[in-house]
Amino acid sequence: xxxxxxxxxxxxxxxxxxxxxxxxxxxxxxxxxxxxxxxxxxxxxxxxxxxxxxxxxxxxxxxxxxxxxxxxxxxxxxxxxxxxxxxxxxxxxxxxxxxxxxxxxxxxxxxxxxxxxxxxxxxxxxxxxxxxxxxxxxxxxxxxxxxxxxxxxxxxxxxxxxxxxxxxxxxxxxxxxxxxxxxxxxxxxxxxxxxxxxxxxxxxxxxxxxxxxxxxxxxxxxxxxxxxxxxxxxxxxxxxxxxxxxxxxxxxxxxxxxxx
Length: 260
Description:
By secondary structure, the chain is an alpha+beta fold. Helices cover about 25% and strands about 25% of the residues. The strands form two sheets. It has a six-stranded mixed sheet.
């Protein structure tokens, strides 16, 4: 079973890119972020034509998350991150697919920091930690996939001082991510590629793709019941170099022997 996460950075603007990648790689489940489309603007017919059922939560111009399942219909379980009823940003969706609870999440960027956007980022991550803890307590197989907007360690960013003040690398952001790992979640990329340099995002500016000046922002956190099936993981970085590409590349994992 192959599960992927892809910050598409505008699903309608990059629909051809998405469909090309789906056709080439045929993932079983895809978590999408930054749809930048309302619910009504989601390209349902094109996604279905590619062989995927979908659930999504859109938002005009910003945010938006979705879960696609090849040859199946995801069973929607949640469309928002609990803990703040006043939060209307479309950043979290959950669905059951092939016996696994899948979450597609798009954590706040947090810039500029300090300021209200960074405060919101840290509060959102605290809510994620609380919900993740409840999910782990349920003892079911779970995958939390998406753009966490956190560079977990210095080795997850190219050598630079230009990001020193960026919310993505602040100690508070890294502590929030580490808090999830401390609960018992497994960082799938690091589990499979413990010593390798892995990037999933290359900013459009300053020729960062051409210079391989990347960051690791897109992560899979696996519950123990899923982690024992983890067989492989990687990044389809070649998609970042194509015309009209997202600034993120699809990141994926493979589970061997699932479903049981």
